[in-house]
Structures are given as structure tokens and as C-alpha cells.
Amino acid sequence: MSASIIVIPCFNEEKRLEVLQFRKHAITHPNHQFLFVNDGSSDRTALILDDLKAAAPDAFDVLHLPQNQGKAEAVRQGMLQAMHAEVDYAGFWDADLATPLDMIPEFAAQLDQTPQLSMVIGARVKLLGRQIERQRLRHYLGRTFATAASIVLKLPIYDSQCGAKLFRVTPECETLFATPFLTNWIFDVELLARARQLEKFYQCPALEETVYELPLPRWMDVAGSKVKPHDFLKAFFELSSIYWNYLRPSIKAPFAELAAASAREETRKAA
Fold first, then answer.
1. Percent helix / strand / coil, the chain, rounded to 5
2. What are the residue boundaries of the Glycosyltransferase 2-like domain, all occurrences included (predicted)?
3. Can you give the pTM of this predicted structure?
């Protein structure tokens, strides 16, 4: 049975963290571990996470960041720690559990069944028979942004921004997190742009062959989200930054070179 670590970025989640749900999942899925990244919270989040770890240290771990650095950096640091553990898969999940935890085995099953896949990402597709509950304004803004991201990436992706993603632990996937992100709101798109660079300059397999979008049967907006409608404007500015730094035709692979150097340094330290 494949082992997985799921990174949960947390910033002031005292009132939204479903501790009981995490405990239940840990009991029924001992091959799944959770790494909570406390991103400099100013409420009782740190105490709650420390209590959770103390109660079940085999299932839960906590990484405390001394100050708030944003979701992108919290996820990045958590993923690097997760990928250095002895597990098959590492991913990240939103702390509000908009995507239910019982979807983790479905994500892992896709990687189990298809060895060429490097990542599985959730897709919030509202179809008959599926319970996708999303505010109408956020839905339409999200669809507009998703179309723009698909065009910039030259990738027929439906939902780059779903907060549930699982990666196969490989040197290539670890490289995606090797350096800090340029963006914060849409680092998910930046991850794919980094993968495009590695594909172009290091002959990695095409994303169309290694990325799988898994339509979610259930997803719901949870009250207290830190993403506001005006943040979609920021996202479009960040999308232009991604194009300029990773995808323009004249790019000389700055990320790919930095990431390769970082990977070599990690290998040297490990030796």
C-alpha cells in the first residue's frame, strides 16, 4: 500500500480546522500522514496543531514558520520536508477540507495505476450527480482565470487552482519546489510553468502525459476563505509574471538552471 504525506498549510485556522476529521482519517488510513505547516499564525492554531501531534505523532507532524510567509512558501517548505521522508507520494490539501479527505485514496490510486503520471490534481467540475458548491461570482471569475492560465501554459487544464494535489516523490517533482515562488496567489500555475521549463530544457516527459485531472464528486466553499474577488485581479498580474519569467519564447531557463544547481547541492549534502 502506497504511503503518502499530505501538507496542510495553516494560517489562523483555529476556528476552521476540523481536527476530528483528521483524526478519523488517520485511524482508518494509517498509510497517510499529515504535515501541518503553521504559517506564523497569531491565534491558537499552533497550540491546536501541537496537541494533535502529541496525541498521534505517527500520523501528524507540525512545521512552525516563525512569521507569516504566505501560502505558497508554506506549501513549498512543507513539500520539501515531505519529499525527504520515505513515502511514495506527497501532496497538499486546503486546511478547510473543501475537498474531503476521503478523496486522498482516489488520488493515490491514480498514481498507483498509471506509473507515467507525476501528479494528480483535483478538478471542480459541476456535473449532474456531483456536489460542487461554489459561490456564483467566484465560479465565473475562476473559469475566466482558468481559461487564461490554460492559454498561457498551452495546456488544456480545466482547474489549476483546486487546493488538492498529489505528486509522485521523484527528483523531478522535488525540483519544482526547489526555489521560492515568484507568485503567491497562483503558485499552482507557477508549478506547472516550472514543469514546462523542465520539459523544454531537460527533456522531461510532456505535461499532457504526466498530469491527471481528477473530477471531484464533492467540493464546497467553506466560510472564512482568505481569497476575495479582488484577488482575481492580482492573479492576472501574477499570470503575466509567470509568462515573462518561465514561458516566453526567448527564455534562457533561469529556473531550470537554478533548480538543477539546487538539486545537485542537495545530492552533495546527502552524500
1. 45, 15, 35
2. 6-168
3. 0.91
Domain annotation covers residue 19: yes
One domain, residues 141 and 239: yes
| Strand bridging mode 211-215 / 119-123 | parallel
Residues 88 and 13 placed together within one structural domain of the fold: yes
Domain membership of residue 75 as a residue range: 1-97
My answer on whether 121 and 226 are in the same domain is yes
Pairing of strands 119-123, 60-65: unpaired
Q: Which amino acid is it at 202?
A: Y
Contact in structure between 160 and 146 (CB atoms under 8 Å): yes
Strands (E), 83-226: 89-93, 119-123, 131-133, 164-168, 211-215, 218-220
Q: pLDDT at residue 231 above 70?
A: no
Judge whether residue 131 has pLDDT over 80: yes
pLDDT digits (tens, 9 = 90+) for 137-179: 777 787 888 899 999 999 999 999 999 999 999 999 999 999 9
Mark whether 194 and 221 lie in a shared domain.
yes
- Rounded Cα gap, residues 177 and 174, in angstroms: 6
Amino acid at 175: T
77 pairs with which residues across the strands? none
Same-domain pairing of 87 and 155:
no
Task: Work out the average pLDDT over 190-218.
Answer: 92
In a shared domain, residues 251 and 153 = yes
Torsion angle of alpha carbons 77, 257, 188, 212, nearest 10°? -110
CA torsion, points 126, 130, 136, 142, in degrees to nearest 10?
A: -50
